[in-house]
């Protein structure tokens, strides 16, 4: 069975664990470097990116996760997880660190503060069915992508129309929104299928 870890330091850990379990993957919380050895892939959940960055350092997870990413481990980041995977972050703290996985520039809190949270339809390339009802909470958006990055989703209507909110680079996937809060498992299933293809 495919085993996927969820970085369990802060954020929507429980929701991702439940969503992954509903796709028939084995989901495990990850808090220590040694626990990474037992998973095929990793989810970096939504939460607060500066707090998450600090905790990743305190739990000595930066280098182990970076190494697994360099070795090809599939990783999915949602919201704060997208920020953690970006090579460049705008409006972040000067001491904020990430995993430099996806060649993209992400603007932190681009859609506004907590009170500006909203839902918007997003069509995601490779995810069948109707447009995804995406939940954005203090969400980032992507301002620039590198040559190797595929844009999978943009906001389709409203004042944020055409903003990039879903990307993929190799085995790395990121969304600005929170599919774990919707009950719609299609993004998680897409990632599980990515993992199975990468580990076949």
Automatic annotation (TrEMBL):
Catalytic activity: aldehydo-D-ribose 5-phosphate + D-glyceraldehyde 3-phosphate + L-glutamine = pyridoxal 5'-phosphate + L-glutamate + phosphate + 3 H2O + H(+); L-glutamine + H2O = L-glutamate + NH4(+)
Xref: PANTHER family: PYRIDOXAL 5'-PHOSPHATE SYNTHASE SUBUNIT SNO, PYRIDOXAL 5'-PHOSPHATE SYNTHASE SUBUNIT SNO1-RELATED
Family designation: Belongs to the glutaminase PdxT/SNO family.
Keywords linked to the UniProt accession: Glutamine amidotransferase, Hydrolase, Lyase, Pyridoxal phosphate
Pfam family, one: SNO
Binding-site residues for L-glutamine, renumbered to this chain: 47-49, 108, 137-138
Protein name: Pyridoxal 5'-phosphate synthase subunit PdxT
Gene: pdxT
GO process terms (BP): L-glutamine catabolic process; pyridoxal phosphate biosynthetic process; pyridoxine metabolic process
Quaternary structure, from the entry: In the presence of PdxS, forms a dodecamer of heterodimers. Only shows activity in the heterodimer.
NCBIfam families, per the entry: PLP_synth_Pdx2
EC annotation from Swiss-Prot or TrEMBL: 4.3.3.6, 3.5.1.2
InterPro entries linked to this entry: Class_I_gatase-like, PdxT/SNO, PdxT/SNO_CS
UniProt GO MF annotations: glutaminase activity; pyridoxal 5'-phosphate synthase (glutamine hydrolysing) activity
GO cellular component: cytosol; glutaminase complex
Species per Swiss-Prot/TrEMBL record: Micromonospora pisi
Pathway: Cofactor biosynthesis; pyridoxal 5'-phosphate biosynthesis
Active site residues according to the UniProt entry: 79, 178, 180
Function summary: Catalyzes the hydrolysis of glutamine to glutamate and ammonia as part of the biosynthesis of pyridoxal 5'-phosphate. The resulting ammonia molecule is channeled to the active site of PdxS.
HAMAP family the record matches: PdxT (MF_01615)
């Amino acid at each position: 069975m495919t085993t996927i870890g969820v970085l369990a330091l802060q954020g929507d850990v429980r929701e991702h664990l439940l969503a992954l379990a509903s796709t028939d993957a084995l989901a495990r919380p990850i808090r220590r470097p040694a626990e990474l050895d037992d998973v095929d892939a990793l989810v970096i959940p939504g939460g607060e990116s500066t707090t998450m960055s600090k905790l990743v350092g305190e739990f000595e997870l930066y280098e182990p996760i970076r190494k697994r990413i360099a070795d090809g481990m599939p990783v999915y980041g949602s919201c704060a997880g997208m920020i953690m995977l970006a090579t460049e972050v705008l409006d972040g703290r000067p001491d904020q660190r990430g995993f430099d996985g996806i060649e993209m520039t992400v603007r932190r809190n681009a859609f506004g503060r907590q009170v500006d949270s909203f839902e918007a339809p997003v069509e995601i390339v490779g995810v069948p069915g109707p447009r995804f009802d995406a939940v954005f909470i203090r969400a980032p958006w992507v301002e620039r992508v590198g040559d190797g990055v595929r844009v999978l989703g943009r906001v389709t209507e409203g004042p944020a129309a055409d903003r990039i909110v879903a990307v993929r680079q190799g085995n790395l996937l990121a969304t600005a929104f929170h599919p774990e809060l919707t009950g719609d498992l299609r993004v998680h299933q897409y990632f599980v299928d990515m993992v199975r293809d990468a580990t076949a």
